[in-house]
Design a protein that fits this description.
Blueprint: H1 7-65, H2 82-94, E1 99-105, E2 111-114, H3 128-134, E3 139-150, E4 153-168, E5 174-183, H4 185-244, H5 254-271, E6 274-282, H6 285-292, H7 294-311, E7 318-322, E8 325-333, H8 336-351, E9 354-356, E10 359-361, E11 365-372, H9 379-395, E12 401-403, H10 407-425, E13 431-440, E14 446-457, E15 461-463, H11 465-475, H12 478-498, E16 505-509, H13 512-517, H14 520-531, E17 538-543, H15 544-548, H16 551-563, E18 567-573, H17 580-585, E19 590-593, H18 595-599, H19 605-621, E20 624-627, H20 633-642, E21 646-648, E22 656-657, H21 658-669
Parallel strand pairs: 11-12, 14-16, 16-17, 17-18, 18-19, 19-20, 20-21
Antiparallel strand pairs: 1-2, 1-5, 3-4, 4-5, 6-8, 6-11, 7-8, 9-10, 13-14, 13-21, 13-22, 14-15
Bound molecules: ligand C2E and calcium ion (CA) (2 copies).
């Protein structure tokens, strides 16, 4: 509704004007109809009267009509002896009627008789009404006279109707005209009175109707206004709510979180009580989102929001302050241990798998905590400190909480610097590949090697992939860098084959970003044709989460790659969304049992049983099984006994730079092991 528009006002002004107009029109119309009626009624009566008078008097007029002999001055007719005679006749005939005056005209329009004698002889030929009557019609006129000379003397304030009535002879020719004045004062006055009554009654009725409508409309207006106001209020509330809340989870958003934190800092300043900020990031949320789909990702976020809400202490509100980041303001803390306790509760709650669309997903949080006043005096500093602590938690293995310490800010800066350097690393040739041998259990020979990416940073030295691959993935740089890895690994493998190790197979890790890119089969083909490496000597390593992303297109892509002759292995088997159906549906050549199983295989019977089951399953599906992260002889022996095909791990060798690789291979094949070849160890 347009602001300021009032239905009531619009209605009242127009309808009041309308009522006045309608009442006036009705009153005037009534009066007009009544007067017209009266006139025609009186005229009819008068013409009868005139005819009656004519019948008795006409003979008497012959003398009067003969006035031509009298010359121009007809006034002398007054003295005619006929006049008193006619007077008497007229009086006799008019007795009891309301006729006040009678005049008679000849065919020239001259007054040959009038009850008012002074008018006898007047020339009235110019009168319109008279002319109408002379030509055979009749006419009448209503008039008002202040004073009037009637038959019985002067009268005051009279309404009169003057009718001209033609008198016809036997041959139907007009012989003369009677003019009869009838007194209609009473009738006109009563008509006027009635008209006024009609006007009053109509006005009253309409006013009644008007007030009835006014009340109704007022009420409608009020209802409409109230409704409009309510809608506006609701809209405003909704806008305010949206401005302050996250749509998905319904939690306060970042800006609202900042406001709340601001207020909390103010309260802490007054009370002196300790205040904590807890930032919670969901680990690898991007992978969950990419592999299970956005809908499932949204569900994980909503569920996580609820879980966090259950863990935080009395009254603290959880806010969603970023894609996969939540914030909690903890007020009135007794000690920093209390903040740690809340964080621990969150971690414990998330240890349970989350049910999403019928699947169980393990979502782990990383938590950064900053405390007022030590880690920041204001909202901004507190948030920066908590963010630095969160980064630290993620960098040091995730699924943990970290309190802010002063050195963390410098780490955050370092990360930023690293990101900028990474953009230049490819063109400046700072990437290198290390190779870790894979040993065939059956004969103790090196069957191949995994190419592992390193960044040789000009200032920092060798940087491990765990620190920069996530950055490459986030920025999309993983695609060009991955292409480089493919080409370089193929080139190196072919060079070693040509140097006498023809059986060597190289395996290259692929990220989800590369898998999705679409150009992967072409990149693989280019790397192979450029290097001359036979496709059979190239293996591509994928993780389960990469496959989970999009079942149909993943299958297609894998078959395309397989068709080129390369082999596919499933990396980190057992950690992701392990599903045996992957093994059935995809053309997989090898499984790589994850380090975490191998680590405690000797002490953990469950892991032993699981590994055994994986090997058996692999055998029955004709899928090779590789054990990764083997560090001890006992692990090696157990895995060999369980029937693993290949072993990879520090036990044989750490990943090596290319120039040292062949001597490591020689060492392994001659029966040396890691512990005995100190000089061959790389630092990474
Ligand atoms: P991954 O594919 O699981 O690679 C094996 C990781 O386990 C390597 O870590 C290797 O050094 C380590 N490792 C091998 N044997 C042992 C052992 O006995 N004990 C222990 N504790 N660790 C062992 P690295 O080189 O740091 O690589 C980490 C991850 O980075 C890789 O895990 C892989 O996911 C990724 N990555 C490495 N290179 C590339 C690459 O070229 N492209 C892509 N997309 N990812 C890569
Ligand atoms: Ca791998
Ligand atoms: Ca692995």
């Amino acid at each position: 509704m347009k602001a300021g528009f009032s239905l009531t006002r619009a209605f009242s002004v127009t309808s009041l004007l309308g009522i006045v107009a309608i009442a006036a029109v009705l009153g005037l119309f009534y009066r007009w109809v009544s007067v017209e009626n009266l006139k025609s009624h009186v005229t009819r009566a008068n013409s009868e009267l005139a005819q009656a008078l004519a019948n008795t008097l006409w003979g008497n007029f012959a003398g009067l009509l003969d006035h031509e002999k009298l010359g121009d001055d007809l006034s002398i007719l007054v003295d005619s002896p006929l006049v008193p005679h006619i007077d008497a006749e007229v009086r006799a005939k008019l007795h009891g009627l309301s006729v006040l005056k009678v005049k008679i005209y000849d065919l020239h329009g001259h007054t040959i008789y009038s009850t008012e004698h002074s008018q006898i002889g007047d020339d009235k030929s110019h009168s319109k009404g008279l002319r109408v009557a002379l030509s055979g019609g009749s006419s009448d006129k209503l008039m008002f006279r202040e004073s009037f000379n009637g038959i019985d003397g002067p009268l005051a304030e009279r309404h009169l109707i003057a009718s001209y009535v033609p008198i016809f002879n036997d041959a139907d020719e007009v012989e003369g005209v009677f003019e009869i004045y009838t007194d209609v004062t009473d009738l006109v006055e009563s008509t006027n009175r009635t008209a006024i009554q009609v006007l009053v009654v109509v006005t009253l009725l309409m006013l009644g109707l008007y007030f009835y409508l006014l009340v109704t409309i007022r009420r409608a207006d009020r209802v409409l206004r109230a409704h409009g106001q309510r809608e506006r209020d609701e809209r405003e509330q909704r806008i305010r709510y949206l401005a302050m809340h996250d749509v998905l989870t319904g939690l306060p958003n970042r800006s609202q979180f900042n406001t709340m934190l601001n207020r909390a800092v103010g309260r802490a300043e007054r009370s002196g009580n300790m205040l904590g900020v807890m930032l919670i990031g969901l680990d690898r949320f991007k992978v969950i989102n990419d592999s299970l789909g956005h809908e499932a990702g949204d569900k994980v976020l909503t569920e996580a929001a609820e879980w966090i809400g259950r863990c935080v202490h009395g009254g603290a509100t959880v806010s969603r302050i970023g894609g996969d980041e939540f914030g909690v303001v903890m007020e009135n803390l007794f000690s920093h241990e209390e903040a740690g306790m809340w964080a621990k509760q969150v971690l414990e709650h998330f240890a349970e798998p989350m049910a999403v669309d019928g699947r169980e997903v393990v979502v782990s949080p990383s938590i950064g905590i900053s405390l007022w006043p030590n880690d920041g005096q204001d909202t901004k500093q507190l948030m920066n400190s908590a963010a630095a602590a969160l980064h630290r938690a993620k960098d040091t293995g995730r699924n943990r909480y970290v309190f802010y310490t002063d050195d963390l800010n410098s780490r955050a800066l370092e990360r930023l610097e690293l990101e900028m350097d990474l953009r230049k690393a490819l063109e400046q040739g700072e990437f290198v590949l290390f190779y870790q041998p894979r040993v065939d259990v059956a004969n103790g020979r090196v069957a191949g090697m995994e190419a592992l990416l390193r960044w040789n940073h000009p200032q920092r030295g060798m940087v491990a992939p765990g620190r920069f691959i996530p950055m490459l993935e986030e920025s999309g740089l993983i695609v060009p860098v991955g292409e480089w890895v493919l080409r370089e690994a193929c080139r190196q493998c072919q060079a070693w084959r040509e140097a006498g190790y023809a059986g060597l197979r190289v395996s290259v890790n692929l990220s989800l970003g590369q898998f999705r890119d679409g150009d992967l089969p072409e990149s693989v083909a280019t790397a192979l044709s450029e290097s001359g490496l036979p496709a059979a000597n190239l293996e591509l390593e994928l993780t389960e989460s990469t496959l989970a992303e999009d079942t149909s297109s993943a299958g297609q892509l894998l078959r395309k790659l397989k068709a080129k002759g390369v082999s596919i292995s499933l990396d980190d088997f057992g950690t992701g969304y392990s599903s045996l159906s992957y093994l059935m549906h995809y053309p997989i050549d090898r499984l790589k049992i994850d380090r975490s199983f191998v680590r405690d295989i000797v002490s953990n019977h469950e892991h032993e049983a699981l590994t055994k089951a994986i090997v058996l399953m692999g055998n029955s599906l004709d899928i090779g099984v590789v054990a990764e992260g083997v560090e001890q002889r006992e692990q090696l022996e157990m895995l060999a006994a369980l029937g693993c095909d290949e072993i990879q791990g520090f036990y044989y060798s750490r990943p090596q730079p290319a120039n040292k690789f062949l001597s490591v291979v020689a060492g392994i094949e001659e029966g040396w092991v890691e512990g005995e070849t100190e000089e061959l160890q790389a630092t990474l």
